[in-house]
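Ticket opened by: R.M.
Priority: normal
Category: complex prediction / small molecule

The reporter submitted a protein together with manganese (II) ion and asked that the result be attached to this ticket for the collaborator who will pick it up next week. Submitted input follows.
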Amino acid sequence: MKIDRLSGMLSELGCVSDEPGKLTRTFLSPAMRRANRLVGGWMKDAGLAVREDAVGNLIGRIEGSDKKAKTLLLGSHLDTVRDAGRFDGTLGVLLPIVALAELKRRGVTLPFAVEVIGFSEEEGVRFASAYIGSKGYLGLLTAADLKLRDAEGTSVRKAISEWSRGAPAAVVRRNAARAPRPQDLLGYVEVHIEQGPVLEKEKLAVGVVSAIAGQSRFKLTWTGKAGHAGTTPMPLRHDALAGAAEFTIGVEAIARRTPGLVATVGALTVTPGAANVIPGEVVHTLDVRHARDAVRRSALMQLGRLATRIARERGLQRRWQRTQENRAVACSPALTAQLGRSVEAAQGRSLSLVSGAGHDGVVLSSLTPIAMLFVRCHGGLSHHPDEYASPADCGVALRVMVDFLERMAQQHAR
Ligand code: HGY
Ligand code: MN
Ligand code: MN
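Result attached by the on-call engineer:
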């Protein structure tokens, strides 16, 4: 099977970056345009008709032999976090392309149409809110989404109009008009590295996903009083960084004592940010996730009470802005069972696991049944340049995808 081809594509795409010496490819960036051109060429070689929508999603489509048949959606995201690994997202776009090329080489024409989508934004790095790509593909971007601003103050609206040279409102409407309808679709299947330790522990190359954890993301602002670090006595201070630090330790403590909860303060900025000035303001992110929404919501209540106490005791103002909220999403048992049969054929047994990471399937689940195939990654490491899935494991995933497509075709024929 064409695993060396897939490995080569992953390596080549892994060099398309906005930052020299590391892999960073964010929403509608120059690197994103180069990536779409490269992956679009591979899609064409595999026999797909390629288009790019107005929010930068790359869409390759191949018609089936039965013009009345529905469409199967495959894909994942082409954007990355900063200093990323080369598998997160990209594997789920490139593997279906290689699988379809393999079926073409074998002279197999599927009865149903297949769309392979490279979503332009899943990570939420540039605009601190995730899934702008898949929401844009479905015409679900809201006015609030379009108003989000990046670190340079550029809004989503402006970024889209610069990318597609179209009025954003018209762009959103056009995508909404072109979005597939539920009755047009067989489902959405995403291949993704596990980004966790379970498959490695179970000594399995691949597994299927039962559910995707719900997540809440926030931007917190702590406002105290800047002052002279040398002359301001400790009892008179309103140190915003000390407050944010106490809160961060509290976040970790609440997550540690709540089974299955993960909570992270991932990015933090201090103002004015000078060694001899007491921090006047701190802005930081908060990311809270759990497979059960009730547990996540209860943790958020505890975190709110903690922040209120710290602000009161330290004489600080604090402001919460919710930047993302996704309920936990169940994968389709039927579609997952079909995928599971291909997993069993490829590796003898299947394993079902919950995804702590978010995926584009969260958004697609509002439209159509979803299933996910996880691929073992070394040490469970991801969002890191050392992220790694072996060619052998990617080869198993490739065999699963080809087998799954062939089974779907046989099922259609019945
Ligand atoms: O952050 C996540 O859950 C995913 O990697 N976007
Ligand atoms: Mn990711
Ligand atoms: Mn991902």
